[in-house]
């Protein structure tokens, strides 16, 4: 009997637009993986577990321009949760320091 393994992925979706020549441009991260490879892998897994209906519902999210940053990959959810808490803590401290520099207090 083969055990089914799950992998947990913690990722960040970056959607910071850049304005160039009066146009809003969404920057794309240069990764060895491209958007099509990631979305194809996600859609294949959705189709396996949820069928064509689930795959159709997931395709609605494909129209949102964004980039994805992988923050942590783990075999157990507890390590992903710990990494998410640590990332949130450092992000909040960084945002708080920037706000204090500008004179805004969070």
Automatic annotation (TrEMBL):
Gene Ontology CC annotations of this record: multimeric ribonuclease P complex; nucleolus
Keywords: tRNA processing
Organism of origin: Rhizopus microsporus var. microsporus
Protein name: Uncharacterized protein
GO BP, sorted A to Z: tRNA 5'-leader removal
Keyword Cytoplasm assigned: no
Superkingdom: Eukaryota
GO molecular function: ribonuclease P RNA binding
């Amino acid at each position: 009997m083969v055990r089914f393994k799950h992998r947990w992925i913690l990722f960040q979706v970056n959607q910071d637009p850049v304005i160039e020549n009066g146009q809003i441009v969404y920057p794309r991260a240069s990764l060895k993986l491209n958007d099509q490879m990631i979305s194809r892998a996600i859609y294949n897994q959705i189709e396996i577990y949820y069928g064509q209906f689930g795959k159709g519902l997931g395709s609605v999210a494909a129209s949102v321009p964004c980039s994805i940053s992988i923050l942590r990959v783990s075999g157990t959810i507890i390590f992903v949760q710990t990494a998410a808490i640590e990332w949130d803590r450092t992000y909040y401290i960084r945002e708080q320091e920037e706000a204090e520099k500008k004179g805004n207090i969070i």
